[in-house]
Prior knowledge:
The complex is a heterodimer of chains A (441) and B (199). Chain A is built from three helices and 28 strands. By secondary structure, chain A is mainly beta. Chain A has a single domain, classed as Methylamine Dehydrogenase, Chain H (7 Propeller), CATH 2.130.10.10. Chain A has a four-stranded antiparallel beta sheet, with no helix packed on it. Chain A has a four-stranded antiparallel beta sheet with strand order 2-3-4-5, with no helix packed on it. In chain A, strands 6-7-8-9 form a four-stranded antiparallel beta sheet, with no helix packed on it. In chain A, β10 (146-151) and β11 form a beta hairpin. Mean pLDDT of chain A is 86; it is low at 78-84, 118-130 and 304-327. In chain B, strands 1-2-3 form a three-stranded mixed beta sheet. Chain B has helices spanning 33-41, 43-46, 70-77, 132-146, 165-173, 175-181, 185-195; strands at residues 100-103, 116-122, 151-157. With 199 residues, chain B is α+β, with helices and mostly antiparallel strands. Chain B folds into two domains: 21-66, no CATH class; 68-195, Fe-S cluster assembly (FSCA) (GMP Synthetase, Chain A, domain 3, 2-Layer Sandwich). The model of chain B is unreliable at 24-62 (pLDDT under 50). The radius of gyration of chain B is 17 Å and the shape is globular. Helices cover 32% and strands 9% of the residues of chain B. The chains are: A mainly beta (441), B alpha+beta (199). The A-B interface holds A 23, 64-65, 67, 94, 144-145, 147, 163, 204, 206, 237, 267, 291, 344-346, 364-366, 393, 396-399, 429-430 and B 111-113, 115, 148-150, 152, 170, 173-177, 179-180, 183. Chain B: Residues 70-155 form the MIP18 family-like domain.
Amino acid sequence: MALKPKSAIISPLSPFTPDLYQRAWCSIPHPTLPLIATAHAKSVTVFSLSTFTKHSSLTGGHSRSVRTVAWQPPFDNDSNKGGGKRLRLVTGSFDATAGLWSYKPKAEDELEQEVKFGNGDGSDNEEEEEDEWEFTLVLEGHENEVKGLSFTPSGQYLATCSRDKSVWIWEDVSLASSDIPGIPSGEGEDEWETVAVLTEHEGDVKAVAWAPSQLPNSRPKNASRYYSAECLASASYDNTVRIWREDAAEGPGEWVCVAVLEGHEGTVWSLQWESKEREDGRFPRLMTCSADGTVRVWRVKHDEDEDQDEGQGLMGRFGAIPNTMRRSLKEEWECEAVLPRVHSRDVYSISWSAKTGLVASTGSDGVVAIYAEDPDAQEEGVSRWSVIGTVKNAHGPYEVNHVTWCKRWDAGIEAERRGKEEMLVTTGDDGVVKAWEVRVE
Amino acid sequence: MEGRGLDNANPTILSVSQLPSRRRKGGAVRRGPDSKCDSIVYPRQHWPYGSGVSSGEDDEEEDEEEPIDEQDIFDLISTISDPEHPHTLGQLSVVRLPDIHLSPSPAKLPSPDALVTVRVDLTPTINHCSLATVIGLAVRCRLEQTLPPNYRVEVKMKEGSHAQDDQVNKQLGDKERVAAALENDTLQRMVDKMLSTCV
């Protein structure tokens, strides 16, 4: 049995430079390269995680603030899978659009080198760096502010959400029609299609997240083989979270809301799936944070009635039974834990480490907290969590908008631990992006 | 606009001398709305009251300035113009001194980064005022622009004063919606116009 972490010492590393001098909304690390992208004002600044300095910036694509940003998978460094030569970002903006960006290194091999070693010496390409990100495509459809983005692990599907109460699912068609996974077909022409528009929320949709379908425990079981592999969760101003799946019986593009998670007493600001593979094979859990000051953990109750669902599923596939009668199209989700309360105001952001299973949260009160799950909790349907470390005033008097676990690549740790060990990165209203070392005991 | 489409054509209006100020009976300390707002920007020079007066000229001791109180908050927002009447929010009693609350008191902060919540309950002139959200937005905007960053501003409709209290309160409490609203040209122009009597 795993040991339960007792305490975490959180200490500041040097902040990223330069300061952005205006509210920054979020910083999203690249899953495999030492890069992190920060959304602020109408642009995105990409920092190097090796040097904590600016790597490049994306400007000129949006007429209003960029609220959010996501890296497009695949990330595999193996060049014959396309990941190594391809660096793509999507931005979500208050101007109601999502923008697609491609990084164009000047020479073929340059990307890898530049990224690996950083260009913190600033010697070669200071002048041109602004032009290295190309705004390649704009996704239009939302009526107003785009607030959240999420890619499926394959990079084929993108979900966007907006104040217009809808979630849109887009497909990168060039990726889908390719013979080799991860390499777009044709000569790099971007082609995207709208797959579905989901409109059941009664308020702004603040965030979306795809379940980690790359994990074995996330694949549909026999009981749910009438669903496709992907599962989407959305968090809203209407205080609820919704779970969405594609109903394979009805054909492609037929997405249905299979569960509504009720319990939060304020806007649900963000959500994160459990991305560490579960030993018990159960479907990943979902964690949410809210304006009500709480963080909640939700689980699906599916294992017990698998046999019944099997029969329902087969019937469902004939497609003749009305939705209301097909119990199998609904999933039962329950809240298994409310994390110990730390925050006195809105919790804006949470991060659930895929490596350690530790959770970090932050929000309007400027506190950063780390929680650990008790691995010995035996009670069925309940998990136990404890706070193992906090930092007050993480950004001085300012609100903290985002927290994320992030791989360390800096010179502060030995070379063999780079790209493996994790730190925290926080993003605040002060326009500062801060890195924090976390020592768990 | 006059006579057509006004939500409340005949609001009660207080004269400036009826508004609460720090020295009701102490003579003309205030010289009008402009100087009131400067007090936040240049506190040492413009607050001729309280116990810390002695070193008024000494620029080096700026960090020992007077703690902000409810009257200061009132002075900051009472001069905002109403979007449909040619009067200020103070004159229309949309903003009232007893409905401003600071917690904890800025005088007793353990550190300069400690948070202070400013709660302002607005009383719209009638209970279905469609401009309530815009007024709330202007008040929140004014306070966020002028108060130090450890202040958390909560602007709400006074209970029972407005038909859609909850929706308006929730919108005004949502940082993301407020940020986006201020990037909307029409709203930004309205708010600028309302705040133009403060600056």
